[in-house]
User: What shape does this take?
Amino acid sequence: MTTSPPEREEPAASPRFALRPEVEADAPFRLALFRASRGPGWEQIPLPPDMLTRIMDQQFHAQTQGHRTAYPDARLQIVTIDALPVGRLATYQGTHALHLIDIAMIPERRGQGIGGTILRTLKDQAAAAGTPVILQVARDNPAAQRLYHRQGFVMTAANDTHLTLRWPAPPPTSAGTA
Assistant: This one.
């Protein structure tokens, strides 16, 4: 008697989303997304709310300026569903690697397959260029770490706050080899 393996539930299809270039008018959305991405620990810091807001604004502006300085030619995009912004993607295709600078989704859209779909697309682009994908993820973001590990990223370095992960591009195949 043979038995068939138990049926696995197929993951729900990712919602249809689009990417569009980021524009200056997206700054309020990006700030709100930055705040939503900082995690619940921020609300527990024993400081007055207005001071926390100022600190968050300063960190947002510092991150924005840091990214612009490190990656002046980065591709900055807004993830949309039905023309409404739901996330952000910042990448830079360098000579030796595709850098995933930033990827974030609003809390209501996390876990729906959008990030995985974007990562698969980035890996395809990197493979076509023969380069790896490199990113940094916060140590206190285990959900993102799980996503990256499921996508085949491996840790290559770590510091007190972040892990550096790398997806190695497959070796190029030669035409005519068996």
Observations:
- DSSP finds four helices and seven strands in the chain.
